[in-house]
Write a structure and sequence with these properties.
Multiple sugar transport system permease protein; MetI-like fold; mainly alpha; 15 helices; about 75% helix; MetI-like; transport; MetI-like_sf
């Protein structure tokens, strides 16, 4: 009996320990409980509308006449592709996104490096530079529209007084300058986000690295290229990737300032989606174009994700 009890004791202990959750399992279950509300909101607010867009892109959906329904197959995508405004809008989207992101990064990096230097009133400059980014897009767009108006715009008045222009110029009313003008305004508003992000990364670089490089005879440009830029790589790639998506799908700025005009010179894909849905009432075509845009953004995400994963593995 004593031998049996001696054997049963460890067996019961092993069984008990087998049913007892490990610490890693407890942490995992606790994490899932905290993530559950966010997961539910994701399904309701993102996954459900996304699936609805994909579904409507393959069906006939009309806002004016809801009774007109049916399976459209690839007809909505064919409508988008055969639209004469699609390729120009795609080109405008590429120009708008590329110039905006490049300008924002260049200006943000320059201002971040300047604000990292021990200059007087640096704290004030750091507070003031964030002002354009906190201004709502609608307010910023309307203000710049008024300042650029050829009749009473203050910027046109100043440029005429300084001799830069012979007469006021309709920056937002000309085919050649409308998109570039809106792009400039978007850069003005968005670059402070780059500034504060890159400034935080600059402050995390150990000063000993720069001091050691200076002792070895490295100049300012070489220290910036060899030490500063590599430390900013992760933050820079993240900022650029996020802003490519944000800028490509941006609707507010262009709509507030030009509504895609003149003559669709500043029309981008989000403006085109709006016209399909709210002016032509063709929700199916709008969803088809939105699906194409999402597919392109997904491709960018996977390229970025696998690029980061490969770099970490190396």
């Amino acid at each position: 009996m004593k031998a049996d009890a001696a054997v049963q004791g460890p067996v019961l202990a092993i069984r008990a320990s087998g049913h007892r959750p490990t610490r890693a399992g407890q942490v995992r279950r606790t994490a899932l409980k905290f993530l559950a509300p966010a997961g539910i909101l994701f399904l309701i607010l993102i996954a459900n509308p996304l699936l609805r867009v994909l579904w409507d892109s393959l069906h006939i959906v009309n806002l004016v006449n809801p009774s007109v329904t049916g399976f459209a197959g690839w007809d909505n995508y064919r409508t988008v592709w055969e639209d004469g405004d699609f390729l120009p809008a795609l080109g405008n989207t590429a120009i708008w996104t590329g110039l905006s992101v490049a300008g924002e990064y260049a200006l943000g990096l320059a201002s971040a490096v300047a604000l990292a230097q021990p200059v007087r009133f640096r704290a004030i400059f750091r507070g003031v530079i964030i002002i354009p980014w906190v201004i709502p897009i609608a307010v910023a767009g309307l203000n710049w529209t008024w300042m650029l108006t050829p009749d009473y715009g203050i910027l046109n008045v100043w440029m005429v007084d300084l001799g830069l222009l012979d007469r006021p110029y309709p920056w937002l009313g000309q085919i050649d300058t409308a998109l570039l003008t809106v792009t400039f305004v978007n850069i003005w508003r968005s670059y402070p986000f780059y500034t504060i992000s890159l400034l935080a990364a600059l402050q995390a670089i150990p000063r000993e690295l720069h001091e050691a490089a200076a002792v070895d005879g490295a100049g300012a440009w070489r220290r910036f290229r060899v030490i500063t830029l590599p430390h900013l790589r992760t933050v820079s790639l993240t900022l650029i990737f996020i802003h490519i998506i944000w800028t490509a799908i941006n609707f507010d700025f262009i709509w507030v300032m030009t509504e895609g005009g003149p003559l669709n010179a500043s029309e981008t894909l989000p403006i085109m989606i709006y016209r399909y849905a709210m002016q032509d009432f063709d929700v199916g075509a709008a969803c088809a174009l939105a699906s194409l845009s999402m597919a392109f953004m997904a491709c960018l995400f996977f390229v970025y994700y696998y690029g980061v994963a490969r770099r970490r593995a190396a």
